[in-house]
Amino acid sequence: QFHMIKHEDLTWRESLGQGSFTHISRGSKTDQWDGVTHSTEVLLKVLDANHKNCWESFFEAASLMSQISHKHLLLVYGISVHKSKNIMVQEFVKHGALDLYLKRSTSVSVSWKLDVAKQLACALNFLEEKNIAHGNICAKNLLLAREGDPSADNSPFIKLSDPGISMALLGKDVVLDRIPWVAPEVLDTLEIELECDKWSFGSTLWEIFNNGEAPLQGLDPIQKQQFYEHFSNLPALEWTELADLIIQCMQYQPELRPSCRSIIRQLNSLITSDYEILHATGTHPK
Ligand SMILES: N#Cc1ccc(Nc2nc(N)cc(-n3cnc(CCO)c3)n2)cc1
User: Fold this and answer.
1) Which of 43, 141, 207 to mutate for ligand 1's pocket (most ligand atoms within 8 Å of CB)?
2) Contact 181, 134 (CB under 8 A)
3) Which residue in 111, 129, 158, 198 has the fewest CB atoms around it within 10 Å?
């Protein structure tokens, strides 16, 4: 169920960092279309050689993204297996991971953030309708295809990345490190259900409205585990309606979390209210 890409059709450029058990590089792939050679810029995601045993899960994550297509889901061109290297070939998304973009950007407006949040909610709604759980929703896995320029009145555009290797294979320390994105019930079962993505959505909303700052970043794994044991909540944002939405998503009982349709409805009313506040008082919520 995959397009296999020949290793010799890939060119490797600079390294761009790493994910869990993987590292990423910019590159290009060449294709022959009716005898003409085309070169496409790609992102090469390589499974670390010392985690070769995870190759099934690595490609399982990629195939999830290949079986369904949606404008806000990352395009995976295919895979390439060469000697001991397992490579996922993805579309190169122009502005990279959202968490880094938010940390670097100073003037990102509330309406920009709401627009991005709504796009993520739409991607999740699409997955929910297909009964597909992603399992790794966070700002690091949101890729910014278009920055959006308020003066040119065009808006940002994001793509949700593949979920990566399943947590069942990543080990407890990686799972603890993913607190508070990973839903509390996952710590026991290591099973990903649709409701888990709602919890992660809440955590990602918090990141987006805190300019890419990671929630609970100062806590060590034990303190992170206690955060769940004490049924704690993230520090509330000043905008109470938004803080309420985050609390709804981050309900400890999975069945109490809102549907994607409800999340989208609430985001729409925040977008409208933001618009009214902006035009009423000339100021708007943090
Ligand atoms: N400077 C810069 C710069 C860096 C990267 C891109 N592009 C791109 N395209 C993708 N398909 C995936 C990623 N990506 C980034 N971090 C991860 C790991 C966490 O998911 C994945 N980046 C564009 C500009």
Assistant:
1) 43
2) no
3) 129
**Tens of pLDDT along 64-121?**
888 899 999 999 999 999 988 999 999 999 999 999 999 999 889 999 999 999 999 9
Residues 59 and 61: their CA atoms lie apart, in Å, by 5
Q: What is the CB neighbour count within 10 angstroms for residue 251?
A: 18
Q: Which atom of ligand 1 is nearest to the CA of 93?
A: 9
| pLDDT beyond 60 at 38 | yes
pTM of the predicted model as reported, rounded to 2 decimal places: 0.94
Ligand 1 probe mutation, 76, 77, 93, most atoms within 8 A of CB: 93
In the predicted model, is pLDDT for residue 285 greater than 80? Answer: no
Among 14, 15, 16, 158, residue to substitute to test ligand 1 (most atoms within 8 Å of Cβ): 16
Ligand 1, atom 16: closest residue by C-alpha: 97
CA of 158 to the centre of ligand 1 (A): 12
pLDDT of residue 163 exceeding 90, the answer is yes
Terminal alpha carbon distance of the chain:
46
